[in-house]
Amino acid sequence: MAINWFKYSSPASFYFLAGKMIPLFSIAAIVLCAVGLYIGFFVAPTDFQQGEAYRIIFIHVPAAWMSMFLYVVMAMWSGIGLAFNTRLSSMIATAIAPTGAMFTFLALWTGALWGKPMWGTWWVWDARLTSELILLFLYIGFMSLQAAIDDPRRADKAGAMIALVGVVNIPIIYFSVKWWNTLHQGASVSLTQSPKMATTMLTGMLIMSLACWMYAIAVVLIRTRAIILERERHTAWVGELQGATP
Amino acid sequence: MKPRHKKLAIIASSVTALGVASILVLNAFQSNLVFFFSPSQVAANEAPVGKSFRIGGLVEEGSVKRQSDGVTVNFVVTDTAKVIPVVYTGILPDLFKEGKGVVAQGKLANDGIFRADEVLAKHDENYMPPEAASALEQADKARQTVLVQ
Amino acid sequence: MLQGCNLECVRGDRRLFRDVNFSLEAGGLMQVQGPNGSGKTSLLRMLCGLAAPAHGEILWNGAEIRSLGGDYYAVMTYLGHLGGVKDDLTAIENLRISSALGGIEIDENKAHEALQHMGLGGRELLPAKVLSQGQRRRVTLARLLVCGTVLWILDEPLTALDTAAVKLVQGLMERHLEHGGMIVMTTHQEIEITAIATQRLQLA
Amino acid sequence: MFFWIIRRDLLLAMRRRADVLTTLFFFIIVVSLFPLGVGPEMNMLRTMAPGVVWVAALLAAMLSLGRMFASDHLDGTLEQMLLSPQSLPLLVLGKALAHWLVTGVPLVLMAPVLGIQYDLPVDALLVLTISLLLGTPVLSLIGAIGAALTLGLRGGGVLVSLLVLPLYIPVLIFGAGAVEASAAGLGAGAHMSLLGAFLLASLVLAPWTTAISLRISME
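Predict the joint structure of the above. Result:
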């Protein structure tokens, strides 16, 4: 292909490319979220055993998926930054962390709200819940470590180490419901089996996941742009940018 | 030792250590690291004696009986092989129904009745509208009738 | 042969230096000069492989030093401005451990000799915390007597030393250069070392 | 070389006995405070004991983590280690082992005595000691990663706990779980074999990770 990918790996060109993409992803996130919530609240039928309370699934499951997915993506970009010394990938990893932590917190919170009426408890120390809590701690550790280091290069690399060490937790979260007898139910959607949900419910959930995904991309791009500006503030192109918009 | 040999020795011992570690993990998973025990495990004396633990299974159809005080409930937990009678005083979660999953924490008394301090409902990963559920149930029944015939 | 090509150093937001080039042959001495904060220590840390240059490469006999790893560390001795002397260990223990870290294990007698040569006779068994600054520096420099490496990278080796010790160290360096060794050093003092090739690297 | 490092660190610890004893006394005091706080009800104390001893061990190990590399960093010895022709992961393994010998082993030896305060039966004391014996080296090894990453940072002490404690959770769960399982008559085999797996895996992976982290922090 004729596209020069390396061109976009320089912070300056990525800055402008991201600027153009942010509106697209933001609009996609808003539209998908509206559609997903509409399906979730008005179209999807009542569940045969949980009644209306199951509708929290439309936020809970996408948030939980994103919390794990974003961690893997963050570790991957960190690892690339560590291995190939590419500044941009480390910046993206730094930008992902707060969003990932937000989704982890959301998954835990909505899970508690769901657990109280259904299971009869806000919280149990079963393997799924505990490992998801550890994930939140890992995000927090990553962010605090980076915040404590003044030299951005060292911050990137040190963060990458903790992100990569923490990756072992992801399969533990995912498979915890299979490996141990947990109170948490198993996965309703998986690659190998047909989904164990009614089609409209599944559609709503998938659309909400897509919405969360688009939202995450948009926010991460915005945050990456801010990080780029901060780190490159002494370069000529940022100077020109400031000159252009006084 | 030459540096090259030293390196090989380090790699070999690392791989061995990781291998043994995975064997140990697999070994552990065959044993009893669980959130709750099934009635069969309790019957096989795999559950703790005289200590608080959790049992999990299905609430047997037709076994739920409310006592006269209105808050004490008797029911039977089954995993289709073995059963454990349970007594519990307190508020039950909404999802607690006959034929559905349940996890109860408490102690097994000498009379073989499990005295629960806490009862949690465990639901499965199936989500569908009630009509679909009843249709499925009917299909299931129909199939069983066919099998019986 | 040690070569630096187009080296650039960035600390935080500031670029300390760029396009630094040099080439150091056997028997050569390179003196790195420049005012405080010009990046002398940073350059030395790059040359010994502790820090990576923001740009450019450092070659030892034609190979990038980072790819050589332990093979490079085996022929190089770096003495930073922190001496690596432990307060709670005696001079002799300090010397034996630091040279063992450098890959050469020496016995008590050899360590004794080296310390004596550095003018620390009779103080070998005192814990380092009771030694003066200059004496601690001598313990650090005693490593040069036992290390047996080709390339010495010395960050301000002469600070805190009295005139006698400065002479001693200069003599040590001269002998090292005569035997085909190489030295990269920073110093604010005037030094009198005769070498076949002395070069000065000025950092702005 | 490996043994040189261990010998050196043990020698240093000998000359600074106060540091070692502080950690041990911290452990003893924390464990002894709980019965005072929750009251002398023996049944409750017996159930709490494994958790309390393990949490105290975690905290004690973490308190001493700061010292693992800090003094070597301050006096320049750490630079020498990084520039040693010896393999850095091996040196790190030596340092972690020395850290364990100095802080972990005293805790393991002290634990049965403290368990008596909690009226633990003899077989539970034995399981507790074995679980600590398997688990405390893991604390030193994993802690080394955190100590290396936070080297020379402001507020490194608090930060290291934020990084390391989540990674300690599995050790805590299965370490304390071993005692509970054996007290419940289930046998602690599964827990022990998991702790053993943690130990072996961290023996291989932690020194290597710590070595990379040290190079990052020293750059």
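The mean pLDDT of chain C is 87.
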